[in-house]
Amino acid sequence: MIRNGKMELVKPVENVDALKTLDATGLVVAPGFVDVHNHTDWAMFDSFKRLNEGFIRQGVTTIVGGPDGYSSPSDIRKLIEAYNKQGIGTNVAFYVGHNGIRKEVMKKDQKRAPTVDELNQMKALVKEGMEMGAIGLSTGLMYEPGMYSNTKEVIALAKEVAPFNGIYDSHVRSPVFDWIASNQEVINIGLKANIPAKMGHLKAVGLINAGKPKELIKIVEKARKDGISLVSDQYPYDGAGGSITLRKVVIPSEDRELSQDFIKDQSISLKSFISTKKSKNNVRNFTENGVNGGFSWIKAIGYSSLRIVDSPDFPELVGRFIVEIAQEKNIDPFDLICDLLIDAKRPIQVKGGILEEDVKTILVQPWNMIASDGAYLEENGPKLGHPRSTGTFPRVLGRYVRDQKILIIEEAIRKMTSFPADFIGFPSRGRIQNGLPADIVIFNPKTIIDLSTYLNPNKFSKGVIHVFVNGALVLQDEKMTGNAPGKYLSLIKEANTVSNEKP
């Protein structure tokens, strides 16, 4: 029974009259799913997106925003104020972010180590975020400005979350070219800061990392045996990253203040900029080294990681890696990209490729939880994004539990509920238990499945029938109710609530 937003155990001998009854015959009643790596926090700032429908329809009742290091305390405060004012569909917790804090303290002077005073300012901001109820520190060491920091700086900041029983979550520094060492850095930071650590969206991207999960598993299991609280999360897809067009691979982000017309005006034809050797070399430099040494996709993940997922003008190339095609044509990968961009009339989309066998190898590890790394998508919106945003949780339950049987349903649900809830410090979530907030998903195990694809990532999943958040129905009979009962979840408040509860 649900009363006043909480679950109550009804014993067989009790006679209870309910105002409303849901028939769950033939369905699975499970705790609401907890998505510990989610990017819809800023979308819900928009009142039109506050219900977070794409995730409600996956059975997600709690998301953790601010992964990859992007949220400073001022960001979190702004979002909480908006949530309290307009209401939200899912519960939200936050990481306080290294990148967001570094930007505030060091402004535009990022390509160096912080001074003692700057480091102290960053420590104070981490502490401020934790005092607001953040669950821990997140980093995005592949991105600017985190890419300019060293491990020592991150350890110093991570130590600030220890008094609050916080955790460390990382988008690793070099997820392709130095995958093993980058994940080892996560272990070292957790060890030196004496806090639990999580390897965010764990995946072996690119042909150079094929088969390497087995090597990393040995490292992780040794660290856990040595007493380190170490886990990972994963989305169940063989394509990494958001929607990247080939043009975005060669042209850095348009928000940079640059003098080159090529960067300032993206309507200019790429062909005109590669018509001479000099200008083509400039484009190559942007592509491979970033503007002024900043972020670039090729520097981060390399040509060997890019696999074509959509190519309307050259459909025969879909599913193939850029380097494989270049080798066949006996040309340089950059030259191949330029040729494709000149010849194609419509955008070509690429993603970082992962072998399906490596996806499965990581998926079944008992210390690996399910998380989407997803963003907000509307079913009738622009078809740009990743199917993980609308399909992650039903995909695991449909594809890998029901169809392929590589996980049993109880273990899959543990990876989506009590395991992540306990790790982030919210034991009141992620379980069906007397007296706890009623976050519940009811789904059909025979029909649940993701429907989104790389070409149509907006298609919502099917099979989730009812969803409760804090005791209120947000999805009933597969229809959104319009209710917005989600709450900001504070780690400090959770700790105080749990400690004050009677056994």
What does this protein structure show overall?
With 503 residues, this protein is α/β, with parallel strands linked by helices. Helix content is 35%, strand content 16%. It has helices at residues 53-56, 73-86, 98-106, 116-131, 151-158, 179-193, 213-225, 246-250, 261-264, 270-273, 277-289, 297-301, 322-329, 333-343, 356-363, 388-403, 409-416, 418-423, 491-500, and strands at 2-3, 6-7, 28-31, 33-35, 60-65, 91-94, 96-97, 136-140, 167-171, 197-199, 230-234, 239-245, 306-310, 349-353, 368-370, 440-443, 464-469, 472-476, 479-480. The strands form 5 sheets. The protein has a 6-stranded parallel beta sheet with strand order 7-8-9-10-11-15. Mean pLDDT is 92; it is low at 253-267.
CATH superfamily of the largest domain: Metal-dependent hydrolases
Q: Low-confidence parts lasting 5 or more residues at pLDDT below 50?
A: 253-267
The main sheet orders its strands as 7-8-9-10-11-15
CATH architectural name of the largest domain: Alpha-Beta Barrel
Q: State the major sheet.
A: 6 strands, parallel
Shape: globular
> Which range best describes the helical content: under 10%, 10-25%, 25-40%, 40-55%, 55-70% or over 70%?
25-40%
